[in-house]
Specification:
By secondary structure, the protein is mainly alpha-helical. It has two domains: 95 residues; 112 residues, Substrate Binding Domain Of Dnak, Chain:A, Domain 2. α2 runs parallel beside α5 and α4 packs antiparallel against α5.
């Protein structure tokens, strides 16, 4: 038998989470779709907070108005009346601050994300985004020749493993037949011919396997280079998104800082 052959190794599934494996680039493409969704999530988050700020500002205003009227119409007088009324004045000022926070969140932060998202992502008539399709097409084009050669390699590998199994089975049958006195010389000759044929098949499939493997290895550097070019484009797009959102989150944090805005 040509070389050593491990049947368990032949049947084991070779799975990997590597970016370079066929189709695994889809996770990189998905980041583009995720980026658009995360912009929506941030806008929803900002919009909900703005509603809370507006509601709190309105509650303070309503509370201040109601109690100011009660104090003015009540029996309290003098400096205590003024001191009590000062609480209402403070509430009005705080209400104004929260109203300003609401305005900043909606007019500045929300609109900033909305406009950036509109400029960065372009919807297609058939669905999805132009940027995601361009990345998908780029990766597919870069991977197609290598994936085709990889498929040839898998076919050649299976043929070689099958030939090895057939050779091992033929040799076992021939060895068993020698111990069986009931076998005729003609039957023994057929088994020997089978072994010889199996050895030839093993040699042919092994040569084919090694040839395709060599071809795959030769086209791998170009494959890696092409994939890296597309990945770098996606990475630049992702870095722009990350830097932009970092900037927006700092703006939001600043707008929510009442001490800074007061």
């Amino acid at each position: 038998m040509s070389g050593s052959y491990d049947e368990s190794a032949a049947t084991a599934e070779e799975t990997t989470d590597s970016f370079w494996e066929v189709g695994n680039y889809k996770r990189t493409v998905k980041r583009i779709d995720d980026g658009h969704r995360l912009c929506n999530d941030l806008m929803n988050c900002v919009h909900e907070r703005a509603k809370i700020e507006k509601s709190y500002a309105q509650q303070l205003t309503d509370w201040s108005k109601r109690w100011r009227q009660l104090i003015e119409k009540g029996p309290q007088y003098g400096s205590l009346e003024k001191a009590w009324g000062a609480i209402m004045t403070e509430a009005d000022k705080v209400s104004e601050l929260h109203q300003e926070v609401k305005n900043s969140l909606l007019n500045d932060d929300f609109e900033k994300v909305k406009n950036w998202q509109k400029d960065a992502y372009h919807k297609q008539i058939m669905g999805g985004f132009k940027e995601a399709k361009e990345a998908e097409d780029g990766f597919r084009k870069a991977q197609k020749p290598w994936a085709k050669k990889l498929k040839e390699l898998e076919t050649a590998k299976k043929a070689y493993h099958l030939a090895c199994k057939e050779e091992k089975l033929a040799m076992t049958r021939e060895a068993n037949s020698k111990a069986d006195q009931s076998n005729t010389p003609e039957q023994q000759k057929k088994l020997q011919d089978k072994v010889e044929k199996c050895k030839q098949d093993v040699q042919k499939t092994q040569e084919k396997y090694e040839k395709v493997l060599d071809e795959l290895n030769k086209c791998t550097p170009q494959y890696i280079e092409s994939m890296e070019q597309v990945f770098e484009q996606c990475q630049q797009f992702e870095e722009k998104r990350l830097n932009f959102l970092k900037e927006v989150l700092l703006d939001i944090k600043r707008h929510l800082n009442l001490a800074e805005n007061s």
